[in-house]
Amino acid sequence: MTDATYTGGKEPAKHGLLTVDARTKKRNASEKRFRLYGLAAIGAGVFFLVVLLSAIISNGIGAFQQTFIEVPVYLEEAKLDKTGNRDPAEMAKVSTFGYSPLIQNSLWKVVVDSGAETPLEDGGDVKQMISASAAAKVRDWVLANPDRVGETVDFQILASSRVDGYLKGRVSRESIAQDKNIDAEHLDLVDVLREQGVVHKSFNWEFITGADASESRAEQAGLGVSMLGSLFMMITVLLLALPIGVAASIYLEEFAPTNRFTDFIEVNISNLAAVPSIVFGILGLAAFIQFAHLPQSAPIVGGLTLTLMTLPTIVISTRAALKAVPPSIRDAALGVGASKMQATFHHVLPLAMPGILTGTIIGLAQALGETAPLLLIGMVGYIATNYPEGVFSGFLSPNSAMPAQIYEWAKRADPAYYERAWGGIIILLLFLLAMNLIAIVLRRKFERRW
Amino acid sequence: MYDSPLRKTEVDTNESKISARDVQVYYGDTHAIKDVNVEILDKTVTAFIGPSGCGKSTFLRTLNRMNDTIDICRVEGLIELDGEDIYDKRVDPVQLRAKVGMVFQKPNPFPKSIYDNVAYGPKIHGLAKNKAELDEIVEKALRRGAIWDEVKDRLDAPGTGLSGGQQQRLCIARAVATEPEVLLMDEPCSALDPIATSQVEELIDELRANYSVVIVTHSMQQAARVSQKTAFFHLGNLVEYGDTSQIFTNPVDPRTESYITGRIG
User: Any transmembrane segments, and where (chain A) (predicted)?
Assistant: First the structure.
């Protein structure tokens, strides 16, 4: 009945050590095959990773460059400060509509000075080349520097997203045939101005620090406000999930009796870690918004929801870290008369620290990239155009979050937003990379051998 | 046939330090220690011997309530230290363990400096008022642990960096730093080489002057060398307890004789 049945009186042939018998050959061959499978798997993984990273970088790197037009704007006193006494309150009455013609006329002057031949006739014809946000930018500057009214000041005016796309190769003369936002004549002008250095690309800090913009002003949109939203969410998660998670783990691991109840809790914590994140989203909606009446779309709600999601991760990694501390350390501490709490906090916890910190940072990184729960609490779809006024409003006023902002951009129609979505992903990945690096550094720093 | 005891084997005192009456220990449904009655004397080395799983370590750990940390462990009967029931509800195991120190099988220094290893106990018990006093306690403990000369120049070095025998003597120093009255040792030499073992054995004999020492050992030679009293455990029972010389030369119980002559165990 056993596998190794005796096959008769034939003695197995004797081999010297120098000849390899058939069984050994077979075993060696299967080991070789297995190694090849492993190598192939790693190779495939690396290949896909390279494809992914190169796709992200090639699509998103453009978002960090933006096209600007250098325009010396004549700040006409008659238009901007009719009273002439430089009273900011008085000057604030002039809206962006008062500034737009000045900028357009100044740009027209640049066009004329460049000597380009163009069928276009005046400033109103070149307004498609500059961003609709330009007037607001100049106005803010003038209100901050009222003394300069009457002078001609050089501004780096954001080019419109079509001009930007033309410089980046996204927009061509063929593709604008149906496009009412820009004409071929404008592109001809851009060619001339570009050669003269008036139209140029430079690094786009606005993309990193700026606020989101309306659908038609892709060139102006930035990730800054939603980054703050993510920051306030992460602060909430860190402040809640770390102490709660670590305290729960210490209790469960070091103090709780082993019985059915703690077994039940243990199983369910593992189960919670596998619950789809959208479930936490609807839980957050029901508990924090509908029941507790916290404001919609607020980072504090996002943070609370993500805390629920991150807790199991932190608890599991903390318990694993505590388990890994050898029991002899606990014995040693108890043996010299330390109380259980002293043994835990003086000896066990410091040794478990690297594991706890790593788990926490991995949990935070997970929470940072999470989008699905934010769908349900209104952080996806909120157009984050305003910076929070302070720490308090940072937690409570509506905001978006980095992954939500990326999703928002990806579904907008203007192809310029497509590039920004990829750029946003680069920033998000850089954050995750930084967090993982911190985890590694902390691990190295706190790791002690025993 | 055994190493002739180099040290004197007579008991100096008949003062009982720990007395156990009808002690029963259960691990869940397992009855690990059955009806143990024993008087452990002051300023004496008492050895617990017996085959693996006979309950000698379990009984040792009931003497400073280290078994409290095991949920399913239950102790019945009476164990008195200087006439006080150590399982009384009013007794805090933390205070008890300061009086009844313990050294474990595997050297387990904290992953801290040598100084901090020894200073930890006195610190948490508030034995030193200031740094100078603490320094003094640490030095005294390290001298008692017979390791002072080896480590006095590198008190800041990690305790885990010492050799196995040094680590174990450091652990003994750590245990005596809290000025215990009883020192429990759970196979303190089983992880050590013969030279380190003999150093630790010498130390145990010196410690007898100040403490009541209880040592669990697998090595009958060791029991014969270091102890004045020996208790032989078998299957959870205390089979025989008496002067070491008598146990090893003239055992009363046939099971003891079988064990020390190598027929069981």
Answer: 36-57, 227-252, 272-294, 300-322, 348-369, 421-442
B58 touches chain A (CB under 8 A): no
pLDDT tens digits along A259-308? 899 999 999 999 998 899 999 999 999 999 999 999 988 999 999 999 99
Global pTM value: 0.81
What CA–CA distance (Å, rounded) separates B165 from B198? 10
Among B102, B160, B170, B214, pick the best mutation site for testing chain A contact (most A Cβ within 10 A): B102
Classify the complex by whether its ipTM is higher than 0.95, answering yes or no. no
**Please, what is the average pLDDT of chain B?**
88
- pLDDT of A115: 82
The answer to whether B108 faces chain A, any CB pair under 8 Å, is yes
The residue extents of the domains of chain B are: 16-108+180-260
Provide the pLDDT confidence category of residue B85 given band limits of 50, 70 and 90. Answer: very high
Contact A336/B97, CB-based, under 8 Å? yes
B167-178 pLDDT tens trace = 999 999 999 998
pLDDT of residue B6 exceeding 80, the answer is no
Contact B94 A332 (CB under 8 A): no
Q: Model confidence at A450, in pLDDT bands (50, 70, 90)?
A: very low
Write out chain B residues lying below 8 Å of A353, CB-based.
none
Residue A170: predicted pLDDT: 86
| A329, A331, A337: residue with CB nearest B124 | A337
Stretch (H or E) spanning B31: strand B30-41
Q: Are B196 and B14 in contact (CB under 8 A)?
A: no
Task: Determine whether the interchain pair B109/A338 forms a contact, defined as Cβ–Cβ distance below 8 Å.
Answer: no
Q: Average per-residue pLDDT in chain A?
A: 88
**Calpha distance A313→A315 (Å, rounded):** 6
Beta partners for B230? B47, B242
Cβ–Cβ under 8 Å, residues B226 and B205: yes
Asked if residues A76 and A99 have their Cβ atoms less than 8 Å apart, the reply is no
Q: Please answer whether residues B178 and A337 qualify as being in contact, where contact means their C-beta atoms are separated by less than 8 angstroms.
A: yes
Neighbours of A84 (CB within 10 A): 11
Task: Count how many pairs of residues, chain A against chain B, have C-beta atoms within 8 Å.
Answer: 68
Third-level CATH fold of B16-108+180-260: Rossmann fold (3.40.50)
Mean pLDDT, residues A305-322 taken together: 94
Distance of alpha carbon A294 from alpha carbon A24, whole angstroms = 70
Of B64, B71, B104, the CB nearest to A258: B71
Min CA distance, B217 vs chain A (Å)?
19
- Flag whether pLDDT at A3 surpasses 60: no
Nearest Cα of chain B lies from the Cα of A357 at a distance, in angstroms, of 19
pLDDT in tens, A201-236: 999 888 999 888 888 888 888 999 999 999 999 999
CA-based nearest distance B204→chain A, Å? 18
What torsion, rounded to 10 degrees, do the Cα atoms B105, B106, B110, B114 define? 90
* Cβ proximity of A225 and A387 under 8 Å: yes
Q: Which residue has the higher pLDDT, A13 or B178?
A: B178
**In chain B, what residues touch A331 (CB-CB under 8 Å)?**
66, 102, 104, 108
Query: How far apart are the C-alpha atoms of B118 and B170, rounded to whole Å?
Result: 8
CA-based torsion, B218, B222, B224, B226: positive or negative: negative
Structural domains of chain A ordered from first start: 64-203 (no CATH), 224-446 (1.10.3720.10)
